[in-house]
From TrEMBL:
Coiled coil: none
Catalyzed reaction equations: L-seryl-[protein] + ATP = O-phospho-L-seryl-[protein] + ADP + H(+); L-threonyl-[protein] + ATP = O-phospho-L-threonyl-[protein] + ADP + H(+)
List of residues binding ATP: 32
One Pfam family from the record: Pkinase
EC number: 2.7.11.25
One term under GO cellular component: nucleus
Protein name per Swiss-Prot or TrEMBL: mitogen-activated protein kinase kinase kinase
Membrane in keyword set: no
Places the protein is found: Nucleus
An annotated GO BP: abscisic acid-activated signaling pathway
Segments crossing the lipid bilayer: none
Amino acid sequence: MDWIRGNTVGRGSSATVSVATSCRSGNIFAAKSVEFFESEMLQREQKLLSTLNSPQIVQYIGDSITMEDNKLMYNLMMEYAPAGTLYDAIRNQRGRLEESVIGQYTYQIVQGLEYLHSSGVVHCDIKGQNILITESGAKIADFGCAKWSDPDASASMPIAGTPMFMAPEVARGEEQGSAADIWALGCTIIEMATGMSPWPNVNSDPLSVLYKIAYSGELPNIPVFLSTEAKDFLSKCLQKDPKSRWTAKQLINHSFVEEFNLSQRQNQKSFTSSPTSILDHRAWTSTEESETMDDIFETKSASLAHRIGGLWLNSRAPNWKWEETWITIRENVEGVKQDNNVGGR
Ligand SMILES: Nc1ncnc2c1ncn2[C@@H]1O[C@H](COP(=O)(O)OP(=O)(O)OP(=O)(O)O)[C@@H](O)[C@H]1O
């Protein structure tokens, strides 16, 4: 092992993330690790992340297999973000970021999404917990749910993501394309502005969340205290019809983020720095009667929500805290696999 594992800096539903130091260079990086026998998803994430290269995407460094405490581990190495996630930043600011900061992060996330979507990748799990804050701003991370947008490649790809941040067409199990990332971006802006979920008054079980999003016809509330530009930007992200949602390419020129777009262009003109090392860049109310549920979930598309909800109910974790962390769910081709994302952050 030519690197030393340091402290654990994060724990997701699928993996543990530690800070690590290279023995040769002394450089610091992050290692996302799982036991090799259950590393299929992390290896899939590695394959996808290794094809990406953008200032607004967490920088891929490499992968390795290590033997630690008699356990064979698979590690995905990437740049380390000492400041943690956007979710941490929101909590540090007592749940509400200033609008100028929201604008800046939003611009950087849109840049990352524009890069991803133009590269044929859909992230599928945009939320504050999956955005890292680095010296060069917000970077999109955690490609555990990501997929290629090519219909042939994604035909067998199941719906994945975090119910509270899911777009209506995703909650109905119809499609999960790039427009779904834009809806999730809108939800993340609400998270930045309020420190709360986009559906704060909805019963917090995923089944209720999914039903509300899929069939109520309602939209998340746009915070009243935001500027007209910010509200307009949000309304472009939170269109029920995915075809009516603005694309990342359109949003990048929206007046809400215009000043960050302009200042970046100016910076690009004045600096011509060459890159050094990659490490230098561093669910409606409470659950209804089951007859009603069966009526509601009769359709093919809704059966997805039913399966997800059932699984969640069956595997509820004792230390679950919905308010503090948003669940990520993944369905594999053979069936549904539900991951409890229970704190540790
Ligand atoms: N590069 C990094 N630098 C610093 N902290 C990180 C980094 N990557 C991840 N983390 C921390 O580890 C946590 C878990 O990482 P990640 O979201 O990638 O794991 P996961 O198991 O895929 O999570 P999820 O349950 O969202 O699928 C993050 O929320 C964050 O706090």
